[in-house]
Amino acid sequence: MVYFNNPGHIKKFSIDILEDLHYITMSEGFLKENVHPDIFNGFSFLLCETTNPKIVSEEQFNEFEDIYRQLYKAFQSDSPYRNKLIGHLFVAILIKIKEYVWKDSVDIKEIGRTSEIVREFKILMEKHYRELSMGTLEKANRVQEYADQLFLHPNYLNSVIKNATGKSVGNWITEKTITEAKSLLRNSDIPLKEISYRLGFMEPQNFSTFFKKHTQRTPLMFRQGSL
User: Fold this and answer.
1) Which tens digit of pLDDT belongs to each residue from 149-159?
2) What pLDDT digit, counting tens, does each position of 114-171 carry?
3) If DSSP codes are grouped into helix, strand and coil, which group holds residue 214?
4) Total domains, the chain
5) Which residues make Cβ contacts (< 8 Å) with residue 89, sequence separation at least 6?
6) Does residue 55 belong to any structural domain of this protein?
């Protein structure tokens, strides 16, 4: 069986028979430096929060075991290429997991958890932008802040949202910011400077540039056209 776990996630297992066990832990920094900067995009299962154990055949397990032993040997060596070698061997394990274990299937537990995360994220976003528009908050949330509130890794949150909705968390934030900006410009006489502050922009010029990039009009042009 193959299990995945991430920092901050506590899991309890009850195993009746255990003949052999390999447990590999690596930091995100090590993976990005010695495997690939975008490792989570290629191996999204690393970020899965809740999955059922995956069963492999004896032949497949033997293939994993061969790589495990090479990895352990590399770990104990003093080679100047030690970390790179470990990284490449770990990629071999990930590819085998993708081929034999994960494939293109999505775990039922993960589907249920995904729906819950998407719902909670949307609720948090609506509440956050309502407070921003009212002027009760000074700083707009980014991916990290939403992930912190949901007790998730930001890469995992972004992966879940993008897979479920087709849009990344950043895209959701951008679209929501533009929607709120249009509403304030159209339905209020709040000065442009104040609107930019309410939506988390420290400089009005940054807000104007952001708004024009996504609407092809400056905030002032949009307001005047809405009158």
Assistant:
1) 999 999 889 98
2) 778 888 888 888 888 888 878 787 788 889 999 999 999 998 899 888 888 888 999 9
3) helix
4) 2
5) 67, 70, 71, 74
6) yes
- Give yes or no for residue 33 having a pLDDT over 60: yes
* DSSP per-residue letters across 24-39: ----HHHHHHHT-TTH
Cβ-contact 2, 53 below 8 angstroms:
yes
Structure tokens, 167? 């849009």
Question: Is the backbone of residue 166 left (phi > 0), alpha (psi -120 to 50) or beta?
Answer: left
45 inside domain:
yes
Helix, strand or coil, per DSSP, at residue 176 = helix
**Please, which pLDDT band fits residue 110 given cuts at 50, 70 and 90?**
low
Give the separation between CA 88 and CA 184, rounded to whole angstroms: 52
Last residue of a domain, one of 49, 81, 105: 105
164 in any annotated domain: yes
Distance CA 202, CA 207 (A): 8
Q: Which domain holds residue 145?
A: 109-226
User: Which CATH number is 194's domain given?
Assistant: 1.10.10.60
177-192: string of b/e by CB count within 10 Å (b at 16+)? bbebbbebbeeeeeeb
Residues 86 and 192 in one domain: no
pLDDT average, residue stretch 206-217: 94
